[in-house]
Amino acid sequence: MKLIVAIIRPEKLSEVMEALYRAEVRGLTVAGVQGHGGELEKVETYRGLTVKMELQDKVRLEIGVSENFVERTVRAILASARTGEVGDGKVFVLPVEKVYRIRTGEEDSEAVTPQDPGITELLSQMTAGK
Amino acid sequence: MAFAGMTPLLTGAILQTAPVELSGADTAWVLISAALVLLMTPALGFFYGGLVRSKNILNTLMMSFASLGVVSVTWALLGYSLAFAPGSAWLGGLDYAFLRGVGLEGGPLSPAIPHLLFMAYQGTFAIITAALISGAIVERMKFGPYLVFITLWSLVVYAPMVHWVWGGGWLGSLGALDFAGGTVVHINAGIAAVVAAIVVGGRKDWGRQAPVPHNVTYALLGAGLLWFGWFGFNGGSALGATPTAVLAFVNTMLAPAATLVVWMILDALLSKKITAVGAATGIVVGLVAVTPAAGFVGPLGALAIGGIAAIPSYFAIQYRSRTRLDDSLDVWAAHGTGGIVGALLTGVFASEVWGGKLGAIDGNVGLIGTQAIAVAAALAYSGIATVVLLKAIELVMPLRPKVNEEGVGMDIVAHGEEGYARGEGAVLVLPDAVSAPKGYAARDNVHVPAASHSTL
């Protein structure tokens, strides 16, 4: 298994989520974070005070996947999160020692495999239908 | 208050004629106005609160809200008497202490509305004037000493100043015009704020870190509510539902509008962007500037006063932020500078046709001199008395929290609360653990559910 950690632009989150769904990647954790990737600082002015905002808002995605999902997950993120400007973010792929699903106690690859084919099919029908 | 601002002769005339009957219309308008002015103090809390960092939001709000308590009580018990009871040219007497003789009959200075209502209306002014000062010392003054300070300040500084201008004291006799409190409220609070910022000292990171406003929406909300309440502040100062009240009301609409327009232009030209904080500030500056003039100048005069007042305050703010003076929320630039410009321009634009007296624009240049004397007197007395008061309090109790407490933020340190607590990780503490060190729960006193709950 691998843990895929992606730092992306907040405004790209919807597109990334959609791309992940299309790639049939399910199950992710999202957190708002702040960081600096070398992009230009935002400059704000409050009364006479000029402030350089060196930290930018970013979104951090964490996705646990089995080996054969790594490639398509990364591709989906790269394709959907990119603007071409400095500050698009990073994708990290980390080895994972062990995974448990809390509800069932399933381990490893089973624990990161989606368990609700009903919803998966429903979504693919919806996207196919439109 | 227009009575005292106009001429002593006019006040005398009212007293000599047959007793004026109470007016239902006048009473109704001043009742509403008193409620409007009371709302300005919570509004000020939000205006200030939005401009501080999130760790100090409750403390900043409380600095305004607490004034609703301590200054109201002080005003009723003693402040009103020191301001308005018959006395010398310098201070009122004790005739109205504990509201003795302040009843439902027409007041001596307000024959058409009950004396008690006049007292309450004036009380709302005392409350906000004290609260205005807090903008200079937010995020770093201990709350106890702050309460002591504004309580005493309302007696030692505010009440005498009111007496000088409106209560039969020497500035009113001199003929200085102050319709609704440009000198009494705004210059007074503005210079006290500068003094307080100097005596208390700057925030620990001032000049090294950027204290960014945490919620500019609050600042705009507060500015909007201040404007709304200010219709009672200026309009109500006519002390009746009179044509003068209409004039003051309309001027209160027009002057801040002109300030806002000029402020946005200055922002667009000099800061390259029209800022929301700037807009909120501009509105307040315009309201301050028109306060002394509201019932004495025509609507075009009010537009001129509002538009002109934007310029010195705008540059005062730009300049102040480059200095060591941590008047954190620019009370001086808004209320001191705006108040002085308004007081002097009242001397320029005052108009006999509109019920004021002959101003400089109509040839009476001397009125500007009279206005300047009032400004100088307010600056000198309030400045000196505020230093003495704060230094005296400092002898008894420290004015500032410890440096690390200031870092944590005054919400937790002073009030034991957070404005935006998320509640995650909050663990119930048993009552006997409340004696744990301030802000920290002792680990072994944490509530543990009975064993039966945790086993199946």
What does this structure look like?
The complex is a heterodimer of chains A (130) and B (456). With 130 residues, chain A is α+β, with helices and mostly antiparallel strands. Chain A has a single domain, classed as Alpha-Beta Plaits (2-Layer Sandwich), CATH 3.30.70. Chain A has helices at 13-22, 67-81, 108-111, 117-129; strands at 2-8, 29-35, 42-46, 49-53, 56-65, 89-95. In chain A, the strands form 2 sheets. Chain A has a 4-stranded antiparallel beta sheet, covered by helices on one side. Chain A has a two-stranded antiparallel sheet with strand order 3-4. In chain A, a hairpin with a 2-residue loop joins strand 3 (42-46) and strand 4 (49-53). Chain B is globular, with a radius of gyration of 23 Å. In chain B, helix 4 (57-84) crosses helix 5 and helix 5 (115-133) crosses helix 6 (143-165). Chain B starts with a helix and ends with a helix. Chain B has 2 domains: 21-396, Ammonium transporter fold (Orthogonal Bundle), CATH 1.10.3430; 429-456, no CATH class. Classes of the chains: A alpha+beta (130), B mainly alpha (456).
Write the layout of secondary structure elements.
The complex is a heterodimer of chains A (130) and B (456).
Chain A: E1 2-8, H1 13-22, E2 29-35, E3 42-46, E4 49-53, E5 56-65, H2 67-81, E6 89-95, H3 108-111, H4 117-129
Antiparallel strand pairs in A: 1-5, 1-6, 2-5, 3-4
Chain B: H1 2-6, H2 8-16, H3 24-51, H4 57-84, H5 115-133, H6 143-165, H7 170-174, H8 182-200, H9 216-235, H10 243-271, H11 276-290, H12 299-320, H13 331-349, H14 366-396, H15 403-408, H16 410-415, H17 451-454
Helix pairs in contact in B: 3-4, 3-5, 3-9, 4-5, 4-6, 5-6, 5-8, 6-8, 6-14, 8-13, 8-14, 9-10, 9-11, 10-11, 10-12, 11-12, 11-13, 12-13, 13-14
Attribute tags:
heterodimer; A: about 130 residues; alpha+beta; Alpha-Beta Plaits; 4-stranded antiparallel beta sheet; two-stranded antiparallel sheet; about 30% helix; elongated; B: about 450 residues; mainly alpha; Ammonium transporter fold; 2 domains; about 0% strand; globular; disordered N terminus; disordered C terminus
